[in-house]
Amino acid sequence: MADEPQIILGIDPGSRITGFGIIKIEGARREYMGSGCIRTEGTVFADKLKQIYDGVTEVITQYKPSLFAIEQCFVSKNVASTIKLAHARTAAIIAALNHNLEIGEYSPRQIKQSVAGYGNAEKVQVQHMVCTILKLNATPQADAADALAIAITHADILQSLVAMNYKELGIHGMSHSHYR
After folding, report:
1. Which helix (H) or strand (E) covers residue 29, if one does?
2. Has 143 been annotated as catalytic?
3. pLDDT tens digits for range 38-62
4. Which of 27, 127, 135, 149 has the smallest set of CB atoms within 10 Å of its CB?
């Protein structure tokens, strides 16, 4: 049985800069498709949320992902920043839901653990591992690299779930990159 390729859109949300990263997975293989940043302009916060929504919608329309992964909110000492981050996440999630995408959410610690092997890894370590895993010649901008790390984490989790499912069914030696 051949593995069906999946396209995963990873999002690193932010009210000023929202990173996105797109990878294609087929079995254990991860292939870089694209990445970048949605940079909001202006001072009206509602307008920034619309720019995030529109930007994520544009990325979804261009790359046609079947899966969507986003970083969970973390509570910082600055409550206002946490609330803005939550709103930015919501704008991106609504764009994904409007395109009927399955959504995975991961904590910063889970992402670092998955990509760098250490839950307290530094940003530079995560960026290096993203380049290594995806065989990139250049390091993407920080927010885009974080979004790629989120997509890689989603791929790893899905692969683990599929492997566990096959094991429970008594099927050994098979891999499948598709889990619903």
Report:
1. strand 29-39
2. yes
3. 999 999 999 999 999 999 999 999 9
4. 135
